[in-house]
TrEMBL record:
Molecular function via GO: dioxygenase activity; L-ascorbic acid binding; metal ion binding
Organism: Populus alba
PANTHER family (alphabetical): OXOGLUTARATE/IRON-DEPENDENT DIOXYGENASE
TM region(s), chain numbering: none
Superkingdom classification of source: Eukaryota
Protein's UniProt name: 2'-deoxymugineic-acid 2'-dioxygenase-like
Keywords: Dioxygenase, Iron, Metal-binding, Oxidoreductase, Vitamin C
Limits of the Fe2OG dioxygenase domain: 27-127
Length: 178
Protein backbone atom coordinates (compact mmCIF):
# COMPACT_ATOMS: atom_id res chain seq x y z
CA UNK A 1 0.00 0.00 0.00
CA UNK A 2 2.99 2.31 0.47
CA UNK A 3 3.71 2.16 -3.29
CA UNK A 4 0.05 2.92 -4.07
CA UNK A 5 -0.15 5.90 -1.73
CA UNK A 6 3.17 7.24 -3.05
CA UNK A 7 2.00 7.03 -6.67
CA UNK A 8 -1.34 8.64 -5.85
CA UNK A 9 0.41 11.40 -3.89
CA UNK A 10 2.63 12.18 -6.92
CA UNK A 11 -0.42 12.21 -9.23
CA UNK A 12 -2.20 14.54 -6.80
CA UNK A 13 0.79 16.89 -6.74
CA UNK A 14 1.08 16.81 -10.55
CA UNK A 15 -2.58 17.78 -10.90
CA UNK A 16 -2.19 20.60 -8.37
CA UNK A 17 -4.50 18.95 -5.83
CA UNK A 18 -4.05 18.97 -2.07
CA UNK A 19 -1.87 16.36 -0.41
CA UNK A 20 -3.89 13.26 0.44
CA UNK A 21 -6.62 13.99 -2.12
CA UNK A 22 -6.80 10.33 -3.18
CA UNK A 23 -6.65 8.95 0.37
CA UNK A 24 -9.57 7.39 2.20
CA UNK A 25 -12.58 6.12 0.26
CA UNK A 26 -11.19 7.06 -3.19
CA UNK A 27 -8.46 4.41 -2.93
CA UNK A 28 -9.84 2.10 -0.28
CA UNK A 29 -10.54 -1.00 -2.36
CA UNK A 30 -7.86 -3.12 -4.00
CA UNK A 31 -7.67 -6.36 -5.93
CA UNK A 32 -4.69 -8.43 -7.06
CA UNK A 33 -5.02 -10.43 -10.28
CA UNK A 34 -2.28 -12.78 -11.49
CA UNK A 35 -2.65 -13.90 -15.10
CA UNK A 36 -0.80 -16.69 -16.89
CA UNK A 37 -0.66 -16.70 -20.67
CA UNK A 38 0.73 -19.93 -22.15
CA UNK A 39 2.68 -19.73 -25.41
CA UNK A 40 0.66 -20.06 -28.61
CA UNK A 41 2.35 -21.13 -31.85
CA UNK A 42 0.13 -18.69 -33.75
CA UNK A 43 -0.70 -15.70 -31.48
CA UNK A 44 -3.10 -14.33 -34.10
CA UNK A 45 -5.49 -17.15 -33.17
CA UNK A 46 -5.90 -16.11 -29.55
CA UNK A 47 -5.96 -13.08 -27.31
CA UNK A 48 -4.88 -12.88 -23.68
CA UNK A 49 -7.29 -10.06 -22.77
CA UNK A 50 -9.46 -8.08 -25.20
CA UNK A 51 -9.10 -4.33 -25.62
CA UNK A 52 -10.31 -2.29 -22.68
CA UNK A 53 -9.67 0.67 -20.41
CA UNK A 54 -9.47 0.05 -16.69
CA UNK A 55 -12.63 1.05 -14.81
CA UNK A 56 -10.83 1.72 -11.51
CA UNK A 57 -8.64 4.59 -10.23
CA UNK A 58 -5.20 3.20 -11.16
CA UNK A 59 -3.69 -0.17 -11.99
CA UNK A 60 -0.16 -1.09 -10.98
CA UNK A 61 1.07 -3.76 -13.40
CA UNK A 62 4.10 -6.00 -13.12
CA UNK A 63 4.22 -7.42 -16.62
CA UNK A 64 7.09 -9.86 -16.16
CA UNK A 65 9.89 -10.28 -18.67
CA UNK A 66 7.91 -11.36 -21.75
CA UNK A 67 6.27 -8.83 -24.07
CA UNK A 68 2.48 -9.04 -24.20
CA UNK A 69 1.01 -5.67 -23.24
CA UNK A 70 -0.15 -3.50 -26.12
CA UNK A 71 -1.55 0.05 -26.11
CA UNK A 72 -3.78 1.50 -28.84
CA UNK A 73 -2.33 4.78 -30.12
CA UNK A 74 -2.89 6.67 -33.36
CA UNK A 75 -4.95 3.84 -34.84
CA UNK A 76 -2.52 1.00 -34.18
CA UNK A 77 -1.52 -1.42 -31.45
CA UNK A 78 1.93 -0.71 -30.01
CA UNK A 79 3.83 -3.21 -27.86
CA UNK A 80 4.94 -2.03 -24.42
CA UNK A 81 8.20 -3.82 -23.77
CA UNK A 82 8.87 -5.05 -20.26
CA UNK A 83 11.39 -3.08 -18.21
CA UNK A 84 13.21 -5.08 -15.51
CA UNK A 85 12.21 -4.18 -11.94
CA UNK A 86 9.63 -1.65 -13.11
CA UNK A 87 5.86 -1.27 -12.94
CA UNK A 88 3.45 0.02 -15.55
CA UNK A 89 0.89 2.45 -14.13
CA UNK A 90 -2.42 2.55 -15.98
CA UNK A 91 -4.79 5.46 -15.48
CA UNK A 92 -8.32 4.22 -14.85
CA UNK A 93 -11.60 5.83 -15.80
CA UNK A 94 -12.16 7.16 -12.27
CA UNK A 95 -8.89 9.11 -12.35
CA UNK A 96 -9.78 10.36 -15.82
CA UNK A 97 -13.06 11.73 -14.44
CA UNK A 98 -11.50 13.22 -11.29
CA UNK A 99 -8.81 14.93 -13.41
CA UNK A 100 -11.54 16.21 -15.78
CA UNK A 101 -9.68 14.57 -18.71
CA UNK A 102 -6.25 16.02 -17.82
CA UNK A 103 -5.22 12.37 -17.47
CA UNK A 104 -6.73 9.72 -19.73
CA UNK A 105 -6.87 5.96 -19.54
CA UNK A 106 -5.19 4.17 -22.42
CA UNK A 107 -7.02 1.45 -24.29
CA UNK A 108 -4.90 -1.66 -23.97
CA UNK A 109 -4.91 -5.44 -24.35
CA UNK A 110 -2.79 -8.47 -23.57
CA UNK A 111 -1.58 -10.74 -26.35
CA UNK A 112 0.09 -14.13 -26.27
CA UNK A 113 3.63 -14.92 -27.29
CA UNK A 114 4.58 -17.65 -29.78
CA UNK A 115 7.53 -19.01 -27.76
CA UNK A 116 7.31 -18.05 -24.11
CA UNK A 117 4.66 -18.20 -21.43
CA UNK A 118 3.90 -14.88 -19.77
CA UNK A 119 2.80 -14.16 -16.23
CA UNK A 120 1.63 -10.73 -15.13
CA UNK A 121 0.35 -9.35 -11.84
CA UNK A 122 -2.07 -6.42 -11.76
CA UNK A 123 -2.94 -4.52 -8.60
CA UNK A 124 -6.19 -2.62 -9.10
CA UNK A 125 -6.93 0.37 -6.85
CA UNK A 126 -10.58 1.43 -6.76
CA UNK A 127 -12.87 3.70 -4.81
CA UNK A 128 -15.28 2.27 -2.29
CA UNK A 129 -18.76 1.76 -3.76
CA UNK A 130 -20.30 4.73 -1.95
CA UNK A 131 -17.51 7.13 -2.98
CA UNK A 132 -18.66 10.19 -4.89
CA UNK A 133 -16.73 10.44 -8.15
CA UNK A 134 -16.60 13.85 -9.82
CA UNK A 135 -14.04 16.21 -11.31
CA UNK A 136 -11.89 17.82 -8.63
CA UNK A 137 -13.26 21.30 -7.97
CA UNK A 138 -9.74 22.76 -8.09
CA UNK A 139 -9.50 21.74 -11.76
CA UNK A 140 -12.74 23.40 -12.88
CA UNK A 141 -12.18 26.90 -14.24
CA UNK A 142 -13.84 29.24 -16.73
CA UNK A 143 -11.65 27.86 -19.52
CA UNK A 144 -11.96 24.26 -18.29
CA UNK A 145 -15.61 23.45 -17.73
CA UNK A 146 -16.74 20.39 -15.79
CA UNK A 147 -17.03 17.43 -18.18
CA UNK A 148 -18.64 14.81 -15.91
CA UNK A 149 -21.47 14.77 -13.41
CA UNK A 150 -21.07 13.52 -9.86
CA UNK A 151 -22.06 9.90 -9.17
CA UNK A 152 -21.42 7.07 -6.74
CA UNK A 153 -18.78 4.60 -7.90
CA UNK A 154 -21.28 1.74 -7.51
CA UNK A 155 -23.39 3.35 -10.28
CA UNK A 156 -20.41 3.13 -12.64
CA UNK A 157 -19.83 -0.52 -11.71
CA UNK A 158 -23.53 -1.28 -12.19
CA UNK A 159 -23.45 0.26 -15.69
CA UNK A 160 -20.45 -1.90 -16.62
CA UNK A 161 -22.11 -5.06 -15.32
CA UNK A 162 -25.31 -4.29 -17.21
CA UNK A 163 -23.41 -3.80 -20.46
CA UNK A 164 -24.13 -0.06 -20.68
CA UNK A 165 -20.50 0.93 -20.63
CA UNK A 166 -18.19 -1.25 -22.64
CA UNK A 167 -14.75 0.16 -23.41
CA UNK A 168 -14.92 3.67 -24.88
CA UNK A 169 -18.66 4.02 -24.17
CA UNK A 170 -18.24 3.56 -20.41
CA UNK A 171 -17.98 7.28 -19.72
CA UNK A 172 -20.97 8.37 -21.84
CA UNK A 173 -23.66 8.07 -19.12
CA UNK A 174 -21.60 10.39 -16.87
CA UNK A 175 -20.71 13.15 -19.35
CA UNK A 176 -22.34 16.55 -19.01
CA UNK A 177 -23.82 18.18 -22.09
CA UNK A 178 -21.88 21.07 -23.62
Amino acid sequence: MKLTSGILELISEGLGLESGYFGGKLSETSLLSVNRYPPCPDPSLTLGLPKHCDPNLITILLQGDVCGLQVFKDGEWIGVGPVPNAFVINIGYQLQIISNNKLKGAEHRAVTNSKDARTSAAFFVSPRGDSIIEPARELIKADNRQLYRAFEFREFVSNLRNGKGKSEGALEPFKLQA
